[in-house]
Design a protein that fits this description.
The chain is α/β, with parallel strands linked by helices. The chain has helices at residues 6-29, 52-67, 81-91, 103-117, 136-141, 151-161, 191-202, 223-233, 250-258, 269-272, and strands spanning 42-48, 70-76, 95-99, 124-128, 146-148, 171-177, 180-189, 210-214, 218-221, 245-247. It has a five-stranded parallel beta sheet with strand order 2-1-3-4-5, with helices on both faces. Strands 6, 7, 8, 9 and 10 form a five-stranded mixed beta sheet that branches. Strand 1 (42-48), helix 2 and strand 2 (70-76) form a beta-alpha-beta unit. Helix 1 (6-29) runs parallel beside helix 2 (52-67), helix 3 crosses helix 4 (103-117) and helix 7 runs parallel beside helix 8 (223-233). It is elongated and about 55 Å long. It starts with 5 loop residues before the first helix and ends in a 7-residue tail after the last helix.
């Protein structure tokens, strides 16, 4: 910071002071975690940028998560994407907090977002830019499930997406197969999670010709979820590429057919092998 011109150095110091004050206020308002220390804590990854303010933000995020009962592991934003995904898989991480304040960090982390989405049980990804203007478009563009600009928003997003370790949590795997975008949700399928699937697909509009939603990893579904999914498939006001074809069977297939979906809304048996992960 000493190498900066005096005016810019003063602005940086003022921003740093304000950021510290905001972070300390957030931390003081965060209730200590009540998790049993003998139980395995839920795992989270926190990616930290290289700048001084980024390091401060990363430490504040990790501290807030630790106070809420999480086991947070900090990684540098330039960590190899394979290492990020391997750590998430090994630790069974349920949450990944990744920065989007700086375009350079987004470019570095984009491959990590992709690999995290391809895990069998991908973590919820929250893009976080403490002290920066909200950039939801950038966060959605790289595949985040949510976006936060302060610790309060971050903890609220975690409570929404990961409310209880005992509940079957929602996530989505993302794969490209030729010109097709394949989304594979996990956890319980309800109207809200269908809306999030729609957001993930819409954020990538123009990058694929066909959209497929594979439902083989869904743990359960509600009637409202089946109805919302059927409405999405048959919404004539959408471009064809944003109306998904579905891969489903069992009770969920029956529920979707009961909603009036035609067999043409589902992928054929001949396509299923091509849609397997790693195909």
């Amino acid at each position: 910071m000493d190498a900066l011109p005096p005016r810019e150095r003063a602005l940086q110091l003022r921003a740093l002071t304000g950021c510290v004050a905001a972070i300390m206020g957030e931390l003081s308002a965060t209730a200590p975690g009540t998790a049993d220390p003998l139980e395995r804590r839920r795992a989270a990854i926190v990616s930290v940028g290289a700048e001084p303010l980024d390091a401060l933000d990363g430490r504040a995020i990790a501290d807030a998560l630790e106070r809420a009962g999480w086991a947070a592991t900090e990684l540098a934003a330039d960590a190899p994407p394979e290492d990020v995904a391997a750590l998430a898989h090994r630790e069974r991480s349920e949450l990944a907090v990744l920065p989007t304040a700086r375009p350079a960090d987004v470019l570095r982390l984009a491959p990590a977002y992709t690999l995290l989405r391809r895990l069998p049980d991908p973590p919820v990804i929250v893009a976080c830019t403490l002290g920066a203007a909200e950039d939801l478009r950038r966060a959605r563009g790289v595949g985040a499930d949510d976006h936060a600009t302060c610790l309060g928003e971050l903890l609220a997003a975690i409570a929404q997406h990961l409310p209880d370790a005992a509940r079957r949590r929602w996530g989505v795997g993302i794969q490209r197969v030729g010109e097709r975008l394949v989304l594979r949700p996990t956890g319980d399928l309800d109207a809200q999670s269908v809306g999030r699937l729609d957001q993930v697909a819409s954020s990538r509009a123009g990058t694929f010709d066909r959209l497929v939603v594979g439902l083989g990893d869904v743990a359960g579904f509600s009637p409202e979820g089946a109805s919302a999914l059927a409405a999405w498939c048959t919404d004539g006001g959408r471009p064809r590429e944003l109306r998904p074809r579905l891969e489903a069977d069992g009770a969920l297939l029956d529920a979707l057919l009961a909603e009036g979906l035609e067999r043409t809304s589902f992928v054929g048996a001949g396509d299923r092998a091509a849609l397997r992960w790693g195909a």
